[in-house]
Amino acid sequence: MERELVVVLDFGGQYKQLIARRVRECNVYCEIHPYTISPEKLRSMSPRGIILTGGPGSVYEENAPLCERALFELDIPVLGICYGSQLMAHLLGGAVRTAPVSEYGRTELCIDAPDSAIFSEVRRRTTCWMSHTDYIAEPPAGFAVTAHTRHCPVAAMENAARGLYAVQFHPEVLHTAEGTKMLRSFVREVCGCSGDWKMSSFIGETVRKLRAQIGGGKVLLGLSGGVDSSVAAALLAKAVGRQLTCVFVDHGLLRKNEGDEVEAVFGSGGNFELNFIRVNAQQRFYEKLAGVTDPEQKRKIIGAEFIAVFEEEARKIGAVDFLAQGTIYPDVVESGTGSGGAVIKSHHNVGGLPETVDFKGIVEPLRELFKDEVREAGLGLGLPGPLVFRQPFPGPGLGVRIVGEVTPEKVRIVQDADAIFREELERGGIDTGKGQFFAALTNMRSVGVMGDGRTYDYAVALRGVLTSDFMTAEAADVPWSVLQTCMNRIINEVRGVNRVLYDLTSKPPGTIELE
Ligand code: XMP
Question: Is 21 exposed, middle or buried (0-12, 13-18, 19+ CB in 10 A)?
């Protein structure tokens, strides 16, 4: 089956994932690649269309990220967005300069060519989202100006005969009122995609590919119980059944009941044909963490111990042919394109790849999906909703939600408080899908009175943040009544706590987790 593909070339723009996602919303499969990909390689992928993202550079600066001119000669339609539009102008003989007036934010867009293929569904005056200091001063020969704004004479241009389109604004962000229609017109009308890509086609196709890749081989997967590794496990189980062994390390720093929930889904009583090994390594981790207060050191200990446990289990299994990982697209993009994302992820993997496990190849069935698409695939594979919509959880688990030394007692406190917080949020109908909501344990103890007795107990911090990318976040406006119920319940039900705080810090300057 031939798959319609649109390629997004990444020039460092912050919205690249959003572009890819909008394309998929048009039911067209989309992949992001670094701008350095060669035109030959691109041609070999036979995309129906190419989209150039925005980016922080200026085309006329030294070291500006440039693609080859040949990209525009492939006879594949190209849409340049923001920096991508300037790049198209620059490489094809137009002029790009610093704009006399920079435009940021919502801006009125006047369509000059309502019959342009990308504007055919759009009103003649509409709102677009601008964010630029350079602009196209002169379009290249053969290009027609198709839209302008008050300060931007070439807000859009095209050479329809060559299938080249450029927009200075960002059609992928929702502030561009009719941006989705423009992208849809590009993908459907200009690129001629029929839009028959669906998540169910993804599952079927991936299962076929996995069988071809794995053959009769044995596969080992480190299952964390998070969404990504769970969906990877379900996909692999569907593809190769008992050739798959999942090792689930319970490091004793999971959320309340989480270990049992994971076992219920993947263990022998669960819905999947696979080998499931749960390692109850709680004590080992607690022993290693005893007396350690420095956050970095805690992370390192947890990471190293995690790998050690995993490797021990792997040795018991013996040689495997493939190591599977639940890497998803944002991980690939963040670590692969040279646009500055790599640093963030280093602390996001618990321990990295095990070194002493003997394997021939790596299997990463989710490498091309975004988080919400991974979730959709998970539902399609029959994973339970609560697992699929589970909130993000750090690899070192509660280890980074307990400030100071980690002890079994503190783990119990934070698990119980966290479970109450999440229960009350659900009861209160609070939408937690737009961020992260959890309890953390401060290292602060203070005096209180309970009944007739004096207490000297811990303060629990509740944290709720709203974020779309986890790079920036602000405190969620959780209703006072819900917070009060949480406070009452936590103090009454969780021994060792006599104070409940709500963390108002945004990121930056804070991080989402407390440590
Ligand atoms: P911060 O606290 O860095 O968190 O603002 C941003 C997002 O990353 C998660 N996080 C981690 N995930 N290992 C992980 O796998 C980690 O060490 C780690 N630290 C933070 C955090 O839960 C949030 O979603």
Answer: middle
